[in-house]
Specification:
The complex is a heterodimer of chains A (273) and B (284). With 273 residues, chain A is mostly helical. Chain A has one domain: MetI-like (MetI-like fold, Orthogonal Bundle), CATH 1.10.3720.10. Helices cover 76% and strands 0% of the residues of chain A. In chain A, helix 2 crosses helix 10, helix 4 crosses helix 6 and helix 9 packs antiparallel against helix 10. The radius of gyration of chain A is 27 Å and the shape is extended. By secondary structure, chain B is α/β, with parallel strands linked by helices. Among the domains of chain B are: 141 residues, P-loop containing nucleotide triphosphate hydrolases (Rossmann fold); 55 residues, no CATH class. In chain B, strand 8, helix 6 and strand 9 form a beta-alpha-beta unit. The longest helix of chain B has 18 residues. The two termini of chain B are 15 Å apart. Classes of the chains: A mainly alpha (273), B alpha/beta (284). Chain A: It is found in: Cell membrane. Chain A: It holds the Pfam family BPD_transp_1. Chain A: InterPro entries: MetI-like, MetI-like_sf, PhnE/PtxC. Chain A: This is Phosphonate transport system permease protein.
Chain lengths: 273, 284
């Protein structure tokens, strides 16, 4: 019979330590990061006085923004700009998603026909993703000129950066058994992609594409700030000319667009699950 | 190893037999026993993994047309590896293989592999169906790898005769009414029947099945093996399958090849294999 009383001291097995031990290197890194945080806080974080001084100005600004401008002429102009914003988002996302599919395939580990060279499309996708969309917008405004075309190109590049990565990861995680079955009978890479991989990852592709569309609507709203078309351009003009009632109407319109888009994409995502 | 050759008897055994005319008695000739064409031949086949672990060695096999061969052995005996080596999906480490007229040493050339794949149908333990595609699309995908088959990746693009052919093989596995259902909505047995249909639509000379009933309950497993066995016989297809189910091997094969300790333990016509012999493979 096994005794449940305390074992003699010589055979006692000690439990593991309550906290994991920390290496000297990890400890040093923690101290450096902590010091950096404290030093940065003093320089860039708002002080309570600064916040207190800013509040009355904020209240004054809000006061000058109300009521939002509902002049029919202005609303009509804003409506066209909103339509342009949605066009930029939709066209940019669709082109971006289309290009992301082969890019994701070329970059996917174990699936790409490029072998080790798949790191090139992967690096290109990373470049598209890591450079902020406003920087892309500045580049396209410089090369293609002011307006919606620069905005659309920005969304295309941004979508490839976002969807390319998710598509590649989804393809890497696709069920291998159907792929093996088709490979065994001699199906080529393209037919394996179309016949087995894409159907399997389709819900993920649709989900990612809908997120990309949602993201594109938000991005295309601000692209106008650097001259890449859309409602953002109207917002910049309103602030530059101190037309705060116009600005508040535009902000409310942006809020409504983004909310509507989130609602729509949520519904579509639920449908395609 | 005990090897008993299994021969197929081609053509009539006796000239005039069954005509009801005793006058032609003097024309009686001795039985003309002609071996059926060779489908798989292996001489001194060996396989060693890169880590040095030997899977099997000195395997000799001679599988003839229209035979139904069960490859048995306990888990890890190398049945699946042997099967893959025989059809060129895995390189062997020694010996010579002749499958469907293609002779190769370690692995077939790319051209040989293409020719081999066009004549072989595969059924895997896990069926390997594309879950989100329809049953009809999955069956038509069995045409992939054949010349001019790029349109076989979806039923909506497939030629009309392929669609009709797919419906015919689905009817043979009693699943024509499920043509439009998604593959991931089928039961395990139904999915395996679709996998059989997908293999049959290639009109293969050789049907390879790796543990086709292993993941199914006993009744469904027997049903699958029966369908396999009958369809292979009806279509004149040589069937080679691995199994660790003794009863499946005894009931649904003409010949049993047993692997044990990396060698062929016995290779006999099924009628000459007893349950005791089988027990020796797994427990002896």
């Amino acid at each position: 019979m096994v005794s449940l009383t305390s074992p003699p001291p010589s055979s006692r097995v000690l439990p593991p330590p309550r906290l994991p031990s920390i290496s000297p290197l990890s400890f040093t890194v923690l101290v450096v990061v902590g010091a950096l945080f404290i030093a940065s806080m003093g320089q860039v974080a708002p002080s309570p006085e600064k916040l207190a001084n800013g509040l009355p100005r904020m209240a004054e600004l809000v006061g000058r923004m109300l009521p939002p401008n509902t002049d029919p002429g202005f609303l009509q102009r804003m409506g066209w700009r909103i339509l342009e914003t949605l066009q930029i988002a939709l066209v940019g996302t669709v082109f971006g998603v289309i290009v992301s599919q082969p890019m994701g395939w070329l970059a996917a580990r174990g699936i790409s026909p490029l072998g080790a060279l798949r790191h090139f499309p992967r690096a290109l996708i990373s470049l598209f993703r890591t450079v902020p969309d406003l920087v892309w917008a500045l580049l396209f405004v410089s090369t293609l000129g002011l307006g919606a075309v620069a905005g659309t190109m920005t969304i295309v590049v941004d979508t490839i950066g976002f969807c390319g990565r998710f598509f590649a990861e989804a393809m890497e995680e696709a069920d291998k058994k159907p792929q093996e079955a088709l490979n065994a009978i001699g199906a080529n890479r393209v037919t394996v992609l179309c016949g087995a991989i894409l159907p399997d990852v389709m819900p993920t592709l649709i989900n990612s594409s809908l997120f990309a569309l949602e993201k594109a609507v938000r991005a295309s709203v601000v692209l106008g700030l650097v001259g890449a078309g859309g409602i953002g351009q109207e917002l910049k003009v309103a602030f530059d000319l101190f037309q705060y009632r116009n600005a508040s109407a535009i902000i409310l319109a942006i809020f409504a667009i983004v909310l509507a888009m989130e609602f729509l994409t949520d519904r579509l995502r639920a449908k395609f699950q | 190893m005990e090897h008993v050759p299994v021969q197929n008897v081609a053509g009539p055994n006796l000239v005039g037999a069954g005509t009801g005319n005793p006058q032609i008695g003097p024309l009686v000739k001795p039985p003309a026993v002609t071996p059926a064409p060779q489908i798989i031949g292996a001489r001194g086949l060996a396989k060693t993994y890169p880590n040095g672990q030997a899977v099997f060695a000195g395997v000799d096999l001679d599988i003839r047309a229209d035979q139904r061969v069960a490859l048995i052995g306990s888990n890890g005996a190398g049945k699946s590896t042997l099967l893959k080596c025989l059809i060129g999906l895995l390189p062997s480490s020694g010996g010579e293989i002749t499958t469907l007229g293609e002779r190769f040493m370690a692995a077939p050339s790319a051209a040989q592999l293409t020719r081999l794949r066009r004549q072989i149908g595969f059924v895997f333990q896990n069926h390997g169906l594309v879950g989100r595609q329809s049953v009809l699309t999955n069956v038509i995908q069995g045409k992939l790898g054949l010349p001019g088959s790029w349109r076989a990746w979806h039923q909506s693009l497939a030629r009309q005769e392929w669609r009709e052919e797919a419906m015919a093989v689905l009817a043979e596995v009693r699943l024509a009414d499920k043509a439009n259902a998604r593959a991931d909505q089928l039961s395990g047995g139904q999915a395996q029947r679709v996998a059989i249909a997908r293999a049959l639509i290639r009109r293969p000379r050789l049907l390879i099945a790796d543990e086709p009933a292993a993941s199914l309950d006993p009744a469904v497993g027997r049903d699958i093996m029966r369908i396999f066995s009958e369809l292979a016989r009806d279509h004149g297809i040589t069937l080679v399958y691995t199994t660790h189910d003794m009863q499946h091997a005894l009931d649904y094969s003409d010949r049993i090849v047993a692997l044990k300790d990396g060698r062929v333990h016995f290779d006999r016509p099924t009628v000459r294999v007893s349950l005791r012999d089988m027990d020796g493979v797994f427990h002896g």
